Fold:
Amino acid sequence: MMKLKPNLLLAVLVVISLLILTSAFAQTSQRSYAIELVVVRNKRSIETDADIIFGERTVKVVPDKTSLAAETKEFAYSDIKLADQSYSKKPLFSVGGGVTTVVLTSLIFPFIAVPFLFIKKKKHWMTIQTEKDYMVLKLGDRNFRQIASELETKGVKVSELKEKEK
Structure:
């Protein structure tokens, strides 16, 4: 029979135990994404930085500001009745800012800045609603797909609302 070296046996045991621990941790870890939560204060809507945390059975939104800690919301995936994702288009510059930019840059580079007037930036939004509560989220340009996918994998159907063509 072949004799194993004690160092080799110990190394194999360490590798196997690390693989078991890390795979179990990866399956139970919570994922979080940076978003903005829309909060109503004094009849005005405020967009505040927040984190959306996907747990095993719930989704939780926690504002970054401690003064808005009362606005923390947590919904069980089974309680979510509606999840809508949409986007709005907004000009990259305001009218005054765009014209000023075109005038100033056209003095240096004629006709180069004109296309900047027509660029529009997309803002991604999501509304999550239960029977008794809701939350409106402003998603980032880089994480809106991941957040929708997280909800879909937890059994929540995400509807995409599209702008009507004019």
The domain at 30-89+123-160 is CATH 2.30.29.30 (PH-domain like). The mean pLDDT is 79. The chain is about 30% helix and 35% strand.
